[in-house]
Amino acid sequence: MKPLPPEFYGRPVLEVAPDLIGCTVVHGETAGTIVETEAYHQEEPACHAYVGLTARTRTLFGAPGRAYVYRSYGIHAMLNAVCEPEGVGAAVLIRALAPEAGIELMRARRGVSDERELCSGPGRLTQALAIGLELNDTPLDHGEVVVLPREGPVPAVVSSVRVGITKAAELPWRFSAVSNPNVSRPWPWRTARGRRRAPEGAVASRSG
DNA sequence: CATGGGATTGACT
DNA sequence: GTCAATCCCATGC
Question: Fewer beta carbons within 10 Å, N or C terminal of chain A?
Fold first, then answer.
């Protein structure tokens, strides 16, 4: 299976974020299917690129299809896929995976045994797959970390508000695979904020 | 150069 | 429900 090419990412971030649900992240012997993402764009203040081009945001403004990895709360690494054409600061945060390969290795790295706790959060999945800051700005189609296209049917996806942000908190730019136990809390599919999205076609709602 | 605020998690009340 | 850990980096003096 060939990795997704840069052209896949060089589109509007609100199209790429739901399209990544069901795709597979591979690093070494470990791999998992994406079940939760969030979109970030330079025009809204929750995005790091909102402040413009700096040393930190250089990757975000660079070519699409590369990894943007940064440290959050001084502890966790966050894995993003850079999107939109070069010069536009936008990315999709990979928030949760369904473990597929190297599960015992993930258990050892995470120190927990429950499969649902291995990759159900952005900090958890980078620990389970051993994705660190050294992978920032590496290509996702021929680098150490690769993303493979969906193999099965298009999954049902629900959009909801993003997690853990204070600015532009009302935008429904979080996308989750419906009823998948590997999605991080809070689960959106029972809440009033969650909105089901057609399995195919339509772009996510901007208005909530 | 000092400061403050996180795209989080896990432990605890 | 609350809270601390821990560090990068944007910002302001």
Answer: N
